[in-house]
Structures are given as structure tokens and as C-alpha cells.
Amino acid sequence: MKRLVLIRHGQSEWNKDNRFTGWTDVALSPRGIDEAIAGGKAMREAGFKFEAAYTSYLKRAIKTLWLALEEMDLMYIPVSNSWRLNEKHYGMLTGLNKSETAAKYGDEQVLLWRRGFAIAPPPIDENNEFSPINDPKYKAIPRHEIPLTESLKDCINRLLPYWENEIKPTLIAKNEVLVSAHGNSLRGIVKMLKGMTEEEILELNMPTGIPYVFEFDDNMNLQKDYFLADEATLSAMMAEVANQGKK
């Protein structure tokens, strides 16, 4: 049996303030730190012994991975970072309060911008303080590949090559792999693994800090998937994510 675990970073400072974050490099909140440690504890108690881990270029996902691996005494395993695991870019919405934006544009429009499969928000200006164009983290990436806005479809399209060429081969060669990333980049992986429709993925809310386990047979056929949390906790956390974009 092979096991892949996806964990969305713990609550960030902008999650706490209910702001669109995307590629902005925001730190974990105190609650987010606790969530990352709790996620590591849950994986340790479930008996995971990861052989490799992957994360994005954004410190909220990186710190979540560090804290979880420290809790599991697995800080020695190889870790690979890729911008392709970054959160969806929210364009001009970056930094705005989600509820205030919903009050201005309506719940339905904000839901489409947040979760619509092929609908991207208006792009951010290259000179905006939150634009990734001049961020040194991305200096090695061709300028035309750096997004100024993305739909979930765009996010999945830039993620898929990394899954196919890096993460999946590692999982095939080894037995347990951990990915610490973001709500939308992880939803892209989930959609692919479960064969979900565009409508189904719209309804999936990835809770912060709760490990999501996928078990495969040796031929990489998905056998089952489940969260490492009790039903009440999971439902409450998912509802919290779902309500962020409502006025």
C-alpha cells in the first residue's frame, strides 16, 4: 500500500483577517502554528513514516511542513519546494477582505472568483505591492509563466506537470509522501485523484491543518481517502472555510 497525505497550511495571519492571500507571503497565525503541530501529532499517532515531502514557495506552507515534521521527528527527510504548489493567484482581489468584497460584488460573484473552475478574478497590476513579478523568489521563472491572476483551472494546469514529473514518481518509488500546500493547489490534486467534476470540486472546502490521506494499491489505484479528524471537528472547519467569502 502507498499513502499520500495532503495538508493545507495552518491558519495564516490573512486567513485570520479574512483577506484574499494567494501568492502573498503571509506568516502563520498563533492558531495556525497550533494547527500545524496538531496535524503532525495526528500523523504521528496514525503511524506515518514519510520518506519525502513537498511544499510551495510560501512560508505558511513551509512552516506548516516544518512544524509537522518536527512533531513526527522526521525533519531529516528530503523536502522539495516548487512554485507550482503555490496557492491560486487572486489577481486584483489580493489583500482585500472577503466579506467586504462579497458585500460589494455579491456572494455569487465572489464564490465564482474564489472557487469557479475556469473564472479568474481581474489581474493585479504588475506594479502593485502584491505583484509577484519582482519578487526574488520567482527570479528563475520565465516572466510569462508568473501569473497575475488565475482560475482554479489555471492553477491545476501549472500544478499537473509537477505532480506527473516529481510527486507521483516519488510516490511510486517509495511508500509514503507528504504534501504541504494550499487550499486551491491541493484541491487540484484532489480533483485529479478522485476524478471529480468541475461542480464537485467547487463544493470541496479544504480545512486548515487537517491531514487528508489517500491510500493506493501498488498499481496506484486509489483505494480510499479520509481526513485525520473526527466528524464534528472536520465539519466545523469546512464550514468555516465555506463561510469566509460571504458578506
Can you walk through the features of this model?
By secondary structure, the protein is an alpha/beta fold. The chain is globular. Helix 2 crosses helix 3 and helix 6 (152-173) packs across helix 7. The protein is built from 9 helices and 6 strands.
What's a concise summary of this model?
The chain is an alpha/beta fold. It is built from 9 helices and 6 strands; from the N terminus they run βααβαβαααβααββα. The protein has a 6-stranded mixed sheet with strand order 3-2-4-1-5-6.
**Beta-strand content bin:** 5-15%
What is the string of SSEs from the N terminus onward?
A: EHHEHEHHHEHHEEH
User: How much helix is in the residues?
Assistant: 40-55%
State the separation between the terminal residues, measured CA to CA: 44 Å
Q: Please state the overall shape, judged from the principal axes of the Cα atoms.
A: globular
Average the pLDDT over all residues and give the rounded result.
Answer: 93
Give the beta-strand count.
6
Number of helices: 9
Report low-confidence residues grouped into runs of 5 or more.
none
Determine Rg (CA atoms, Å). 17 Å
The order of strands across the largest sheet is 3-2-4-1-5-6
Largest sheet: 6 strands, mixed
The secondary structure category is alpha/beta
Main traits of this protein?
6 strands; 247 residues; 13% strand; alpha/beta; 9 helices; six-stranded mixed beta sheet
List the helices and strands and how they pair.
Blueprint (H helix, E strand, L loop, with lengths): L1 E7 L4 H4 L13 H16 L6 E4 L3 H14 L6 E3 L16 H8 L1 H9 L36 H22 L2 E6 L1 H12 L3 H5 L9 E5 L5 E6 L3 H13 L4
Parallel strand pairs: 1-4, 2-3, 2-4
Antiparallel strand pairs: 1-5, 5-6
